[in-house]
Specification:
Layout lengths: L1 H42 L7 H82 L1
Helix pairs in contact: 1-2
Length: 133
């Protein structure tokens, strides 16, 4: 059972790392596009681009920023969900482990009591045998 919980925790950790990697890749891509757009605008003279092109580029940048914020929010929620799920699984594991530990202690006590009774019976048997002889 602990192996299952450990593998579940590892799986959650891998999902978290993958999600963070995807977010970092998207950030890098967004930064590259923003930088590229800025360079294009700086290289061109203001008269070369029409007003419609400027508005179109600005709209694309705004759209990309909104998509970036949406993706960042989704990934943050995914990470939060994974951490909460991991915490719940770990809590369940601890409860189960505690229950099994208690059962094991009770069984150990029962075995000790049984061994005491066996020792007592054996000594009583020896006494009976010695009185019969």
């Amino acid at each position: 059972l602990s192996g299952l919980k450990e593998s579940d925790r590892s799986l959650c950790k891998l999902k978290l790392e993958q999600t963070v990697d995807e977010l970092n890749d998207f950030k890098a891509w967004f930064d590259f596009l923003t930088l590229n757009n800025t360079n294009v605008l700086m290289q061109k003279e203001s008269g070369d681009l029409e007003a419609a092109d400027n508005e179109s580029l600005e709209a694309k940048v705004i759209k990309l920023k909104l998509e970036y914020e949406k993706l960042a929010s989704e990934k943050k929620c995914e990470v939060s969900d994974l951490l909460r799920e991991n915490g719940f699984a770990w809590s369940q594991f601890k409860c189960t482990e505690s229950g099994f530990t208690d059962k094991l202690k009770k069984k150990d006590d029962e075995i000790a009591q049984a061994n005491t009774k066996i020792s007592s019976l054996l000594s009583y048997q020896e006494q009976l045998q010695s009185t019969n002889q």
